[in-house]
Specification:
The complex is a heterodimer of chains A (313) and B (184). Chain A is mainly α. Helices cover 71% and strands 2% of the residues of chain A. In chain A, helix 1 crosses helix 8. Classes of the chains: A mainly alpha (313), B alpha+beta (184).
């Protein structure tokens, strides 16, 4: 038997369990992943010379989505007036520092992709821009270098998508987060969210089918990665076994299996498969479940990590 | 002239003498003007065994000023740093954004957020140490169970105690190389 009594320690948001990150961080991680996914899918569309105007049109939503995500991040800061300090330093050991600079570099990568594909995605805006000296020069610059621009988009998208997972996995103090597979899971989840959004807003049945098929593959990969994560944890050291217990009978079991796995992954992939087989139902259903599932997954991960620790007090 | 040797300040706490009175907690709050509801140190009472064969250990705990500090590595702005003349881990409020990355990175949950928004924690009362005094918690301990000194000085009391007595650190398996030692 062991009993521990702690005197004098009840710091808000730290004790009895860590609760320093609330809704803002999951929202930011979700929108960061969605941004990364859209950037990557847009760039791949360019490299494959596909006629996928929707994913290229959606590139203009990227700065907005990213701005909302960064605003959520800003709201999380306890010392908001010092937000500029992220950009007066680069700390190579701190994933959050890498993330700050990656977020900054994603913007020009996205703007160049928009400029290089504007003639295809937004022809009227393209005509308007051509009347402006700066616009003509920018679009001409990006169009001439469209392949390097697309590759730049892929590099920055992958960096951002993986970073959202690495940010958490680098915290050795929190056993549920401390698995490097989180990076790939977050990247695949971001791509899946982007594919879901694309099939949702697309008006072309061919394009919808293409992104639905892609999404089915991505969700299956995500399910496999989640399975590998759990296998790694239950066969890992004691602290990770205890962390895995959270979803294997512990307090987040229902949250994980019902909301993340069943409603966020398995149900939408089932809906997508029967949609591809010609059965018709409201088209927004599967993408809505996928997007909500992606957001709920981030809420789950952020909460699970904060509940796990090396020291039980 | 020989180069000045870097100090390695450590705290050594004798669990056989500690009675868990909490004077260290009160002294820290007064010395460092820690706001109400927050604390830089605390006392753990750990009871093990089955009645009547019980073993009780009292430990005064705080930031471990780790030699391999995950909080410093996780800080995106350099606000968390190790003082270059010692191993004391500090926070510069001027650089802190209140992102709480260091809080999540600390396996000891030794950091907290001040009402102003920046992160704070034990400083080993560096202002007192620079004046040649012990940290406030050490100086008030009524059972004299706490010792503070330079582990790089082989003649220091802390070096001698750690040579002579069995000791442990908290959760060394986290790989943080803590600098608070408990005599057992």
């Amino acid at each position: 038997m062991e009993e521990q009594i702690i005197t004098g320690k009840l710091n808000p948001h730290i004790d009895p369990v860590l609760a320093v990150w609330e809704w803002q961080i999951p929202v930011y991680l979700f929108l960061g992943g969605l941004t990364a996914g859209l950037l990557i899918l847009g760039a791949i569309s360019v490299l494959r010379r596909e006629s996928s105007p929707t994913v290229l049109k959606l590139q203009v939503a990227v700065p907005v989505i990213l701005a909302v995500g960064m605003f959520a991040l800003f709201l999380d800061l306890a010392y908001k007036v010092h937000v500029f300090r992220f950009y007066t330093a680069f700390e190579p050991t701190a994933p959050m520092s890498w993330g700050s600079w990656i977020l900054l570099l994603v913007v020009p990568a996205n703007l160049l992709l928009i400029a290089g594909t504007m003639h295809q995605a937004w022809p009227r805006a393209y005509d308007w821009v051509q009347g402006r000296n700066w616009g003509e020069r920018l679009t001409a610059f990006a169009e001439r270098r469209l392949r390097p621009v697309a590759w730049g988009g892929i590099v920055m998208g992958v960096a951002l998508g993986i970073y959202t997972g690495i940010l958490l996995s680098a915290y050795g103090a929190r056993p549920f987060w401390n698995t490097s597979i989180l990076g790939p899971i977050f990247l695949v989840s971001g791509l899946s969210s982007a594919a879901a959004l694309t099939q949702w807003v697309s008006r072309s049945e061919r394009e919808q089918a293409r992104y639905t098929r892609l999404d089915v593959g991505l969700i299956l990969v995500e399910v496999a990665l989640l399975g590998l994560m759990l296998i790694g944890m239950v066969s890992g050291p004691l602290q990770q076994q205890r962390a895995a217990d959270l979803v294997l009978g512990g307090e987040l079991t229902v949250f994980f299996w019902v909301f993340v796995v069943m409603l966020g992954l398995l149900l939408p992939v089932f809906l997508e498969v029967i949609h591809l087989r010609g059965k018709h139902f409201p088209r927004f259903l599967a993408p809505a479940f996928i997007l909500a599932g992606g957001l709920i997954f981030r809420f789950f991960i952020v909460e699970a990590g904060q509940l796990t620790t090396w020291i039980p007090y | 002239m020989a180069a000045k040797q870097k100090k390695r300040y450590v705290m050594v706490i004798d669990t056989l003498l500690c009675i868990g009175c909490g004077d260290c907690v009160v002294a820290c709050k007064m010395e460092n003007e820690v706001p109400d509801g927050l604390s830089r140190d605390w006392v753990v009472e750990e009871v093990q065994g089955e009645f009547p064969n019980l073993h009780v250990e009292y430990r005064s705990e705080r930031c471990n000023h780790c030699s391999n500090p995950p909080c410093v590595y996780a800080c995106p702005t350099g606000a968390s740093f190790i003082d270059e003349d010692s191993n004391i881990t500090l926070v510069d409020p001027e650089l802190c954004t209140g992102c709480k990355s260091c809080v999540a990175a600390c396996p000891y949950d030794a950091r907290f957020i001040m009402p102003e928004g920046y992160v704070s924690k034990c400083t080993f009362c560096m202002h007192r140490v620079n004046d040649g005094e012990d940290p406030a918690c050490v100086s008030v301990c009524p059972t004299h169970c706490m010792y503070f000194g330079d582990l790089n000085d082989p003649e220091s009391e802390v070096s001698q105690l750690l040579k002579q007595r069995q000791h442990k650190t908290i959760a060394p398996e986290t790989g943080t190389d803590p600098n608070i030692f408990y005599l057992t």
